[in-house]
Amino acid sequence: MNKDIEFESAETIRAYQETRLHEALDYLHACSPYYRRLFSTHHIDLAGIRRIDDLQRIPFTEKKDLQLHNEDFRCCPKAKIVDYITTSGTLGEPVTFGCTDRDLDRLAFNEAKSFACAGLGPGNILQLMTTIDKRFMAGLAYFLGIRRLGASIIRVGNGIPELQWDTIRRMQPDSIMCVPSFIPRLIQYAEEHGIDYTHSSVKRIIGIGEGLRNQDFTLNLLGRQIKEKWDVQLFATYSSTEMGATFSECEYGQGGHCHPELIIVEIIGEDGRPVPDGEVGEVVVTTLGVEGMPLLRFRTGDMCARISEPCQCGRNSFRLTPIVGRKNNMIKLKGTTLYPPAINDVLDNTDYVQNYVVYVQDSESGTDDVVVKVGLKYEPAYDAVKDLKDRFRAHLRVAPKIEVRPTDEVQRVNFPAKSRKPVKFIDQRKR
Fold it and tell me: Does residue 206 carry a pLDDT above 70?
C-alpha cells in the first residue's frame, strides 16, 4: 500500500486494470465451466476484448444465473475452498460462495485499504458491531482487514447497547463499525443511563449497509441526526459479497473510492449501455484476482452514479455516489419514482417511531400501492398518521398509506428466523 495505484494518474489506472482484465478473462476461459460455456454460446473472441469498453460485447451475469448454476461458477477444486459464505438474500434466494486462501488474503487487502481510506492505521482500535458468524462475509472481512492493517479490533457483535457501552468504557476504542440506524439506539441508551457519550473515546463511526449521505454528499436525515447529537467523523461504505470489494469514503466524504486492483465497474442505463459520469445507473462489476468464484459483468441491482474527477485526498481512482436503492425495488407512487431508502430515511428520523415495515403492492391504476406499518415508541399529543404523512410529503412530495400496529407485531416481521438483516421492505408486486 506504500505504492497505492489509486494515487496514480487515471491513464495509469486504466492501463493497469486492462492488463488485469486480460488475466481475468484468460482465467475464466481456462477454469470456469459457466463462462467457458457463455463464451462459446455467444461466439466471443477473447482476443478482441482488449479494453474495458470492449466488455460491452459480453452478456451480463444475473443473480438468477448464480442461483441456477452455482457450482458452474466455481473455478477451482472443491478441496481449495477454505470458507463458505452466502449472500444475505436481499434480492431473492441467497447464493453460496466459496473462498480460497488467496480469496481471503484478497478480502484482507481490500478491507485494509478501505480502513486506511477512512483514516485507520496501527494503534487505532475498532469496535465491530456486526456479526462475524452465520456465513456472513463482511464480518470476517473486517476482522481480516484490521489484522492486516496492524490496527486492533474488538468483536462485540450486533445489538445490545448495554454491552456496547460497557466495552467502550473498558477498552476505549476510537472507532466503531455498525449499521448506521443502530447509532440512535446507542445514543438513546446513553442518554437514558447517564453515559457522557460526547466525551467517550469514540471519534469515528464507519457505517455499513445503509447510507449516510445524499447524492450531493450532504448528510442525509439519519446522518444529520447522528452528527447533531454526537460530533464524530462519519464514514459510509458500500460493498457486497458478490464483488468482494468495498467502496469507502475518505475524510472528505465525497463518495466511495474504488480499489482498482480488485474490481472493474460499469454504470449502465435501462438500455444496458454505459451512462455518462454523474448520471444514476446500475452498478455492474467484474472482479479481479478472485480465485474461487470470480464474476464477469455481474449486475448488482444497486443504483448510483460514478464520479471521475480526482478527490481532494489525492486519489485519482473513480468514486461512487451513495446508493440510491435497488433497481428491482424501485417504486412508482402517485407518479413519483422512489426507492425504499428514501422512505426509511423519513421513518428512521421520526422520534416516536419504534419500528416499521414497508409493503409495496400492485394497484389497479398500474402504479404501486405503498403501505407503511409502524409501531410507536409512544403516542404523540397529535395525530401520528397525519404527522407522518406530512413528513413524507415534505421530503418526498408524496405520502404512502400509514397503519399503526403493535410494536411486537412489527418486530416479528422485522426479524424472521434465520434472517441476518432486519426486514423493513416487503415487495408483494407480481412481476
Answer: yes
